[in-house]
Amino acid sequence: LQIFGEMFLAVLTLTSVLSVSSLPEDLTESRRRVVHVLEDETGAVIVQTAPGKVVTHRGGSITLPCRFHHEPENTDPARIRIKWTKVTDALQFEDVFVALGKQQRVFGSYRGRVSLERAGPGDASVIIQNVTLEDYGRYECEVTDDMEDDTGFVNLDLEGVVFPYYPREGRYKLNYHQAEDTCKHQDAILASHSQLHKAWLEGLDWCNAGWLEDGSVQYPISHPRDECGRKDTPAGVRNYGYRHKEDERYDAFCFTSKLNGKVYFLKRFKKVNYAEAVKACIRDGSAVAKVGQLYAAWKFQLLDRCEAGWLEDGSIRYPIVNPRSRCGGSQPGVRHLGFPDKKFRLYGVYCFRKYMDETAGGSEATKPLKGSLLKWKSSNSLPMNATDAI
């Protein structure tokens, strides 16, 4: 019994050591969650990355955490290679950063924005500055020492908002590549499935199918009804699967994020047609706002204006944060009144002016900025099938 008791105590002590060693390094810093694990006896490189995901917004800076350990400890740092790669849903790989000793190289659109954090020995974390919409996704951290290597993964998420989009030509007019270009032109990107699913959880309800960035076609239904796939089917994100990217045509679900500029309704004594609206914004040191920019302003700047105005794509929209009966219904959101005649119909206009200093957000420039993102909170911020002809 005494021997059994000593063995039990030893096991209990070992269990306690293992439990403590697997705690996060700093519980107060959710962005720097790094789990340390006991090494095996092979001397191989062991890589640990942040569990879950790290979150930022467009224009922000973020650390992608990655640490490694190698035995023996006196391994020459000049022989350790650190490589970061972005992994797409199609299992394609985009080089981001590589370092071998003191030599470093940054690739493509990441040039000038990515650097090693260098928080101490065994730190392979990188910092991404001035985060863009395209930075969203999954990243692989690979550490190599001679013949040994290991990898870990980090998911970079963005605060933003998903919005459905179709062009002046009407619904179901876009193949995949046209949808991709259309979202980019409206200061957004094609949304991912996880972004659309999150928007659905927050109340997005839209009865038209649209392309997502992985080439699938889906649509979110919060309130089942016969005209949207039968009333007796459960709520959820309906999925048509992966469709032919050139031949088939649908709408698009776009995603955008925080602005580094300001959207505002230009106060004028009279309403204007589209051409006059463009000139009016230019005279005011701005440009006509894009659809994604208006959504970003509604979501992050809480822009609330019960006045319809022109946007860059020739549509008429207005943002409502606090719903009231005379402003389009009981739900907050960006109201869409369609694509009227550009020459003869008269409205106000929403302009966009970028900040000169993106970090301070204080002084402003006179050129329009391509940048904005949105986050979805409320139920059906867009009225269901809200396309009232004008």
Please give a quick description of this structure.
The chain is of the alpha+beta class.
Strand content: 25-35%
Instruction: Indicate the CATH class of the largest domain.
Output: Mainly Beta
Low-pLDDT segments, ≥5 res: 1-43, 358-390
Task: Provide the CATH architecture of the largest domain.
Answer: Sandwich
The CATH homologous superfamily name of the largest domain equals Immunoglobulins
| Largest sheet, strands/sense/barrel | 6 strands, mixed
Q: Using DSSP, what is the number of strands?
A: 23
Report how far the terminal alpha carbons are from each other.
89 Å
Category by helix and strand content: alpha+beta
Radius of gyration: 25 Å
- Mean pLDDT comes to 82
Share of residues in helices? 10-25%
Order of helices and strands: HEEEEEEEEEEEEHEHEEEEEHEHEEEE
| Alpha plus pi helix count | 5
Strand order of the largest sheet: 2-11-10-5-6-7
Q: What characteristic shape results from the CA principal axes?
A: globular
How many domains make up the coordinates? 3
CATH topology of the largest domain: Immunoglobulin-like
Topology of helices and strands:
Blueprint: H1 2-21, E1 46-49, E2 53-56, E3 62-64, E4 66-69, E5 80-87, E6 93-100, E7 103-106, E8 114-116, E9 126-128, E10 137-145, E11 148-158, E12 160-165, H2 176-185, E13 189-190, H3 193-201, E14 210-211, E15 216-221, E16 236-242, E17 251-257, E18 261-265, H4 274-283, E19 287-288, H5 291-300, E20 309-310, E21 316-320, E22 333-336, E23 348-354
Parallel strand pairs: 2-11, 14-17, 20-23
Antiparallel strand pairs: 1-4, 3-9, 5-6, 5-10, 6-7, 8-9, 10-11, 12-17, 13-17, 14-15, 15-16, 18-23, 19-23, 20-21, 21-22
GO molecular function, one term: hyaluronic acid binding
Protein name: Hyaluronan and proteoglycan link protein 4
Domain Ig-like: 44-157
